[in-house]
Amino acid sequence: MVFRKLPGVSASGMGLRLSQKFVFLLFLSGLVTLCFGALFFLPDSVRLKRIFLSKNESPAVTVGSDNELSKKVPVDQEHQRAGLKGAEANVKLKVSRKPSVTHGARTVERSVGSRAQDEWSPARAHEPAARDERVTSAALNGQRGSAFSYETFKKCLMKPALGKDRGNPSDSETLQRRDKVKEMMKFAWDNYKQYAWGKNELRPLTRNGHIGNMFGGLRGASIVDSLDTLYIMGLMEEYEEAKEWVQNNLDLNSNGEASLFEVNIRYVGGLLSAFYLTGAEIFKQKVLELGEKLLPAFNTPTGIPRGVINLGSSGTSWSWGWASAGSSILAEFGTLHLEFVHLSELSGNPVFTEKVMNIRKLLNKIEKPHGLYPNFLSPVSGNWVQHHVSIGGLGDSFYEYLIKSYLMSDKTDEEAKKMYYSAMEAIETNLVQKSPGGLTYVAEWRGGILDHKMGHLACFSGGMIGIGADDGPAGQKQHYLDLAAEITHTCHESYSRSATKLGPEAFRFDGGAEATATRLSDRYYILRPEVIESYMYMWRLTHDPKYREWGWEAVEALEKHCRVDAGFSGIRDVYASTVSHDNMQQSFFLSETLKYLYLLFSDDDLLPLEDWVFNTEAHPLPVIHKTCLQEHSTRQGDGQTSLE
Question: Using one digit for the tens of pLDDT, what is the confidence trace for 222-237?
Answer without folding.
Answer: 999 999 999 999 999 9
